[in-house]
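Could you show me just one protein sequence together with its fold in token form as a worked example?
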Amino acid sequence: MPISKELKALIDSTCDLPPMPLVASRIISLASDPNTDTKVLERAILADQALTAQILKIANSSFYGCLRSINTVASAIVLIGFKGIKSLALAASLKSFYRRTSLAEKMIWEHSIAAAIAAHALSRHLCCQAEEAFIGGLIHDIGKTILNNQRNELFTEIVQTVYNEELTFAEIEREKLGFTHAELGGLIVKKWNLSTELEEAVTHHHSLSEIDPLEVEILKFAALLNLADALCLYLGIGYRKPRQDIDFQTLASAKILNISEPEILHLAELIKTSYEAEKDNF
């Protein structure tokens, strides 16, 4: 993606994009390597007591549906797997990255968690990689958080315009910034050395038509994030009110994923229930 002058100015003025939290970076690196010894990964997690507690809390929630209590990090690794540990480490680390002192910030965090749960549910339904989908849903709007943290007045103006004029974030961001939160988010994913597929999916989750149709997996991943985002809008999670007038059968993402509206509406109920049950665990 070409970096606009405006986007480069934002990056330069903030002395670089935020680094991945150190412990999470170490865990993700280890968990990405299938040759990593389980004990090495366990020691990396145990190096952070707060992160250890958070991982065990989420691992014991109904989200993972384990039939027995997980009392140790070693058990969590065995039962959830390396990919699951990656997701939990990132979710736990980002909790402190998102400020939640204002209503807008609280809504961004709630939307991120709901989108992660939605993407996870969709990927399981479609038999895709569930853990990568969870991470994608969690950070698909990370660009909004950066804008809120570093350009708060301007971002607040954008949010107010979106709600008052019922326009999309992308439309207003392009007008006022020259780039979108999705493009900024893609750069953050790149900075954090996460996968190219995740970078492209985050960058284009609102611009599916810009993805090369021959890049089938990236297109499906971006469509998954787009549909997860639409489901959150439909349910009103992270928004002022639900938008239950959404016609899912006309969405490009639904067509790309070959999923019917009845399937989507059924998943919406499951996602709503899961979100209400799990939101306090993240």
